[in-house]
Amino acid sequence: xxALPAQPDGVPWPTDTWPRGLVGEVDQGRLDAExxxxxxxxxxxxxxxxxxxxxxxxRIVAERYGTGTDETSTLISWSMAKSMAHAALGxxxxxxxxxxxxxVLDPEWSGPDDPRRRITVHDLxxxxxxLQWLEDYVDGExxxxxxxxxxxxxxxxxxxxxxxxPVAEPGERYVYSSGTSNILARFIGRKxxxxxxxxxxxxxxxxxxxxxMESAIPKFDExxxxxxxxxxxATAQDFARFGLLYLRDGVWDGQRLLPHGWVDRARxxxxxxxxxxxxxxxxxxxxxxxxxxxxxxxxxxQAIVCVPGLxxxxxRLGKTxxxxxxxxxxxxxxxxxxxxxx
Length: 342
Description:
This protein is α+β, with helices and mostly antiparallel strands. 30% of the residues lie in helices and 15% in strands.
């Protein structure tokens, strides 16, 4: 596993303002050309690019925004929020308030013989709770994620997901599930208090605040559960701050915010989807890349890519049509990374 780099000496942490300027080597011509290509048209395979921020060595080295968007625009995370749930749980684990091995014990599983009572936090993190789920963003008639976010489950997203029947033993079968992330979010909410106000205060006090993510807006359902499957709004620069926390092994400006080994758990593949190029860790995707890349990934091409071997964070926000598949975004991100290869 590629070692996670420390903040370079003399480079200030971006809690208040991002430092700018190159720290290492870059093919500037190729980087400029790729930045230009990303915003050249909304009709190409990449679709519409709204924001692109490249951080190398702890400094912003490239930044560009689409029409109607700038560095103050708060943009949707979609499933990148799942990785933020991993961080929020990490804060609880560091404080001794939660453990990955403890059972979740949701109220929907109260029966003494209910097999779902064996589901642990680790099963949620690795998308292996054994619950029925279909993650489909096209067919609303069969999609659990559409029904949860926009249909009958919208008022209580975790309750909807937790009520689904078991179809496998906990820990046995990997199924990517936004419902699983919302069950995790409700678990976090129970640990920090009672309802939206307590959870929101916890997120800002323990996660967003220390990083200087002042723009971050987590969204909640009517039951008071953070919809951590899908909904954190923030600026591109603030999403980059979150990526830098993970690139720096959960340490920020001398303070450890995440437990030792927490980031390594995130970037260790636990389950694979056969139709994707990536593996899945603890609520993070893992690239098959010699530089050890791992990333947050969201619907329509949202991405925070951490590249330890090159000390890079790349944030891409936009609207890549789902029918275009993952290849255009993979190629775009790979081209950006290659600009910094020796």
